[in-house]
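Run log // design_07
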């Protein structure tokens, strides 16, 4: 029987880098905005599409999430009515049966503070 050990964080970093490179090469974007990953992961976690969630230890991303409109609004800092969207992603993912891993920031694919493996 063949077995292999895979560093999931390295795989995620490679996939993110390949996506970034493809988007840059296609002229779709020049850099990945820091909040892009959060804006994708929060709704996915809410809808149960996250199988595994990775978040950077002590990281915060303030904003709001409107589940009815499925809209994420990112903020540079905490404001009245805002919440830490990374905490929200963790709660939503755990509630829907996902595995959650808190990792040291240098092990996250840059510039992300959150990453996920999706179910579908």
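design_07 sequence
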């Amino acid at each position: 029987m063949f077995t292999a050990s895979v560093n999931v964080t390295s795989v995620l970093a490679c996939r993110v880098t390949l996506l970034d490179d493809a988007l840059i090469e296609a002229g779709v974007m020049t850099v990945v905005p820091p909040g892009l990953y959060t804006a994708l992961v929060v709704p996915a976690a809410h809808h149960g599409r996250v199988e595994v969630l990775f978040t950077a230890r002590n990281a915060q991303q303030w904003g709001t999430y409107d589940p009815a409109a499925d809209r994420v609004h990112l903020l540079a800092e905490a404001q009245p009515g805002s919440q830490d969207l990374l905490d929200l992603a963790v709660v939503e993912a755990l509630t829907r049966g996902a595995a959650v891993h808190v990792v040291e920031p240098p092990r996250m694919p840059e510039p992300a503070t959150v990453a996920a493996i999706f179910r579908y």
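The radius of gyration is 15 Å.
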